UniProtKB/TrEMBL annotation:
GO CC, one annotated term: mRNA cleavage and polyadenylation specificity factor complex
Main localization category: nucleus
Keywords: Hydrolase, mRNA processing, Nuclease, Nucleus
Annotated Metallo-beta-lactamase domain residues: 28-219
UniProt GO molecular function: 5'-3' RNA exonuclease activity; RNA binding; RNA endonuclease activity
Beta-Casp domain ranges (all copies): 238-359
Pfam families: Beta-Casp (PF10996), CPSF73-100_C (PF11718), Lactamase_B_6 (PF16661), RMMBL (PF07521)
Family of the protein in this entry: Belongs to the metallo-beta-lactamase superfamily. RNA-metabolizing metallo-beta-lactamase-like family. CPSF2/YSH1 subfamily.
Name of the protein in question: Endoribonuclease YSH1
Subcellular location: Nucleus
Length: 519
């Protein structure tokens, strides 16, 4: 063991550990434990059997998607967790509706259900909402939320513990779209950046070109008399596609007889949240809102259930879930897949092993939910509206942040390694090297930060100029990661410590012969 390694082990309190409990060399179920100076922070939710829940000081939820927030009621109400939970106001508002719907549609037996509607309500009351750029502190842990793009209310968190700064990006996008701002750069130098790598070294199609191709494909499908299926998640990219389609229909009168349906009762409830938080969206939407509400659509109808749907001609149907594993989007795919006039457009990221990913490989048939084989004759197209950074956006943002350590997460292993290799080549000739880490789930990254040990002199002690050979004395007071030296008489002013004087009289019992002159 060399001296440097020995010093690191000797000062283990100066070692920060980062352990993925989800999204380590995989996409989804994001969670990471940051441990430093006796503090533990958890962005998103974990494998519960890998942690002691009562040791977590702080949970930071980046956005409302289920793979980041679905187990929060369980964690808050059915474990020993005693810390605090923070998210943005918009995230908290949508979280309530989204998880309430999740509880109702889970179809899990009472014995197997992990939490109830009451657990959700109780947890909701305890969640603390924060604004972007609001500086917060909990037990010496400082953190600030910054706009992350991605979805309404999404945040990246800048976390500071004992002077070490960590930027946790969560899911983020650096591209401004029709309603969301691009992710913003936090101020200051970051020691560590924990960054998503969903798309690895892939590049997204330019936005205007992508929108034009999308509307062109939709027009082509309904123009040939077909049904156009758009599998989406109820909240997020769906609102972007609704804005695009409503505007396109408005400028094409020949399409006014073709209905557009959005089959989601949940999304209709949450649209009130979108209308409430217009101020968190981009300038384009805010300006439009002064004239009319952009989320009151002229050409789109909300479809509560299939009982209200008459399948009698060309239409556009936006339905969840986005990866076609179950639900209404799967039901409609099976209903329409055998007719070549129909088409499906996959508009977001598809995880390996899902039906959405499978049909992109253009198989001749698919397996239905009941196990039968169905011919796949409908057209299948992929246009990425995914609100995750591509390689260009990600690498440029990493250049802006310039962290000492980069921890890549939320990416499939192959894509993550391609990104790491590309970044290593990019920084090959740079003077200040960046260490890049790609941990798997439950694999710990240890990063050593040699902290400065000092105490500030305050109060009357600071006002007095000491001689060079004078012995300096005072009371050392420490709170969280700050230490101070002060005069005992200043304790009341600078601390919550109370001072008091103790008067003591000592009684001595003397036995034997005592001289009468002794008093």
């Amino acid at each position: 063991m060399d001296m440097e390694e020995g010093n690191k082990r000797l000062h283990s309190d100066d070692t920060m550990t980062i352990t993925p409990l989800g999204a380590g060399s995989e996409v989804g179920r994001s969670c990471h434990i940051l441990s430093f100076k006796g503090k533990k922070i958890m962005p998103a939710l974990p494998f519960f059997d890998e942690i002691e829940c009562d040791e977590i000081d702080l949970v930071l939820v980046t956005h409302f998607h289920l793979d980041h927030a679905a187990s929060l009621p369980y964690f808050m109400e059915r474990t020993e967790f005693k810390g605090r939970v923070f998210m943005t106001h918009a995230t908290k508002s949508i979280y309530k509706w989204l998880l309430s719907d999740y509880v109702k549609v889970s179809n899990i037996s009472t014995e197997s259900i992990i939490y109830t509607e009451q657990d959700l309500h109780n947890s909701y009351e305890k969640i603390e909402a924060v604004d972007y750029h609001q500086e917060n502190e909990v037990n010496g842990i400082k953190f600030t939320a910054y706009n992350a793009g991605h979805v309404l209310g999404a945040a990246m968190f800048m976390i500071e513990i004992a002077g070490v700064k960590v930027l946790y990006t969560g899911d983020y996008s650096r591209e401004e779209d029709r309603h969301l701002m691009a992710a913003e750069k936090p101020n200051g130098q970051m020691d560590i950046m924990i960054c998503e790598s969903t798309y690895g070294v892939q590049s997204h199609e330019p936005r205007l070109q992508r929108e034009s191709r999308f509307t062109g494909l939709v027009h082509e499908i309904v123009g040939r008399g077909g049904r156009c299926l758009l599998p989406v998640f109820a909240l997020g990219r769906a609102q972007e596609l609704l804005l695009i389609l409503d505007e396109y229909w408005q400028t094409h009168p020949e399409l006014h007889s073709v209905p557009i349906y959005f089959a989601s009762s949940l999304a209709k409830k949450c649209m009130t949240v979108y209308q409430t938080y217009i101020n968190m969206m981009n300038e384009r939407i805010r300006k439009q809102f002064t004239i009319s509400n952009p989320f009151v659509f002229k050409h789109i109808s909300n479809l509560k259930n299939m009982e209200h749907f008459e399948d009698i001609g060309p239409c556009v149907m936006m339905a969840s879930p986005g990866m076609l594993q179950s639900g209404l989007s799967r039901e409609l795919l099976e209903l329409w897949c055998s007719d070549a006039k129909n088409g499906v457009i996959i508009s977001g990221y598809s995880v390996e092993g899902t039906l959405a990913k499978h049909i992109l490989n253009e198989p001749s048939e698919i397996t239905s939910m009941n196990g039968s084989k169905l011919p796949l004759r409908m057209s299948v197209e992929y246009i990425s509206f995914s609100a995750h950074v591509d390689f260009t956006q990600n690498s440029q943002f990493i250049d802006l942040i310039k962290p000492i350590h980069l921890v890549l997460v939320h990416g499939e292993a192959n894509e993550m390694m391609r990104l790491k290799n590309a970044l290593v080549r990019h920084y090959e000739d740079v003077e200040e090297k960046m260490e890049i880490h790609t941990p798997k789930n439950c694999e710990t990254v240890e990063l050593y930060f040699k902290g400065e040990k000092y105490a500030k002199v305050i109060g009357r002690k600071a006002r007095k100029i000491a001689d060079a050979d004078e012995i300096f004395s005072g009371i050392l007071v420490s709170k969280d990661f700050e230490s101070y030296i002060l005069d005992p008489e200043d304790l009341n002013e600078f601390t919550q410590v109370k001072t008091c004087s103790i008067l003591q009289r000592q009684l001595l019992k003397l036995y034997g012969c005592v001289n009468k002159n002794v008093q």
